[in-house]
């Protein structure tokens, strides 16, 4: 009898020791982008960027509506290790140039979830400026016009593109349609 | 000793039931989906929408080996697609990225909900009601 009681007490204490984990199902829903920071500095968003909508559904598919250019993009998502959000984002194909219609291909990107509650989502990524420019994260940035640049200017652009920056994207959940 | 064995056996059975119940529920939904369905009513953002003649003639058939055949009278097309029921959502490959939430399914009626973005970027919630067509 004493041994059985000891066994149960051990099971209960082991269960209690389990790390409290975030309810990742909170990520499902419609989110609106409210803020972007680069190395802690708030980026000035256009009015339309503040209406960017991210619909995350429980089947692992998200849809991204950008009101700045009325485009709808989509991809897959999964949360691993409790705080890693892996998404497939559109990435510039590397061929279409400045002034042409940009072409994109899906590519996996990993964010760290720094905050997830029933009304706020905050995700972080540390990456090169050049990579950030090539992804639709979550608004596209036009590729640079390199025509007519001097070698020194091209070198400076290259150095800038190889700078590491921490980006933090903040979204608020909305029932707004 | 006997008591310990009984306790362990009970624990094992309890764990077994917990795991198999969820899988059984999923299989039950899938088996009820199998069949041919016709759209009877539709609402968008809780507003009833009049179905067109071609929508009432269209059919959606779920087959057992995850094959879906959509006879779209409006587009004059027969669309063959894969389908799956995962994470409590009905996914029809040719209609992705939009997928359906199953509100209810019985042997005769099916109610699905779907989120779509309108051209202006507003999220619209559509609810589709289907009746099963007897074989």
Account of the protein in words:
By secondary structure, chain A is of the alpha+beta class. Chain A is 19% helix and 42% strand. Chain A has an eight-stranded antiparallel beta barrel with strand order 1-3-4-5-6-7-8-9. In chain A, a hairpin with a 4-residue loop joins strand 4 (61-66) and strand 5. Chain A is elongated, with a radius of gyration of 21 Å. Chain B is an alpha+beta fold. Chain B has helices at 2-33, 53-57, and strands at 35-44, 47-49, 59-62, 67-72, 77-86, 89-92, 100-105, 109-117, 123-133. Chain B has an eight-stranded antiparallel beta barrel. Chain B is elongated, with a radius of gyration of 20 Å. Chain A binds chain B through residues 4, 30, 51, 53, 55, 57-63, 65, 67, 70, 72, 74, 176-177, and chain B through 3-4, 7, 45, 86-89, 91, 96-99, 115, 117, 119, 121-125.
Provide a compact summary of the structure.
The complex is a heterodimer of chains A (177) and B (135). Chain A has 177 residues and is α+β, with helices and mostly antiparallel strands. Chain A is 19% helix and 42% strand.
Supply Rg of chain A. Answer: 21 Å
Helix content of chain B: 25-40%
Give the strand order, joined by hyphens, for the main sheet of chain A. 1-3-4-5-6-7-8-9
Number of DSSP helical runs of chain A = 3
Q: What coarse outline of chain A follows from CA principal-axis ratios?
A: elongated
| Mean pLDDT, all residues of chain B | 89
Distance between the termini of chain B: 58 Å
Oligomeric status:
heterodimer
Query: Strands of the largest sheet of chain B, in order across it?
Result: 1-3-4-5-6-7-8-9
Apparent shape of chain B = elongated
Q: Find the structural class of chain B using helix and strand composition.
A: alpha+beta
Q: What share of residues of chain A is helical? A: 10-25%
Q: Which two chains have the most extensive interface, and how many residues on each?
A: A-B, 19 and 21 residues
The Cα radius of gyration of chain B reads 20 Å
Measured between the Cα atoms of the first and last residue of chain A, the distance is 60 Å
**H/E topology pattern of chain A:** HEEEEEEEEHHE
Largest sheet of chain A: 8 strands, antiparallel, barrel
Strands of chain B, total number = 9
What is the mean pLDDT of chain A? 88
């Amino acid at each position: 009898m004493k041994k059985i009681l000891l066994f149960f007490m051990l099971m209960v204490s082991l269960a209690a020791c389990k790390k409290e984990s975030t309810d990742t199902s909170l990520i499902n829903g419609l989110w609106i982008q409210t803020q972007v920071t680069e190395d802690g500095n708030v980026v000035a968003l256009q009015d339309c960027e503040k209406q960017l909508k991210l619909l995350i559904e429980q089947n692992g598919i998200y849809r991204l509506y950008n009101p700045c250019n009325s485009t709808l993009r989509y991809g897959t998502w999964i949360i691993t290790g409790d705080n890693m959000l892996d998404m497939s984002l559109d990435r510039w194909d590397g061929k279409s140039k400045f002034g042409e219609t940009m072409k994109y291909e899906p590519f996996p990107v990993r964010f760290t979830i720094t905050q997830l509650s029933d009304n706020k989502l905050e995700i972080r990524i540390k990456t090169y400026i050049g990579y950030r420019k090539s992804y639709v994260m979550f608004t596209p940035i036009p590729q640079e016009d390199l025509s007519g640049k001097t070698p020194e200017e091209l070198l400076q652009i290259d150095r800038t593109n190889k700078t590491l920056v921490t980006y933090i994207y903040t979204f608020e959940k909305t029932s707004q349609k | 000793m006997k008591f310990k064995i009984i306790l362990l056996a009970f624990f094992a059975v309890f764990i077994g039931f917990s795991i198999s119940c969820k899988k059984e529920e999923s299989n039950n939904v899938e088996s009820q989906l199998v069949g041919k369905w016709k759209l009877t009513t539709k609402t968008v953002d809780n507003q009833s929408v009049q179905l067109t003649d071609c929508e009432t003639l269209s059919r959606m058939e779920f087959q057992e080996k995850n094959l879906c055949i959509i006879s779209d009278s409006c587009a004059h097309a027969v669309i063959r697609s894969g389908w799956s029921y995962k994470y409590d959502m009905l996914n029809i490959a040719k209609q992705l990225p939009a997928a359906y939430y199953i509100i209810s399914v019985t042997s005769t009626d099916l109610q699905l909900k779907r989120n779509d973005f309108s051209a202006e970027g507003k999220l619209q919630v559509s609810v589709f009601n289907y009746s099963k067509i007897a074989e």
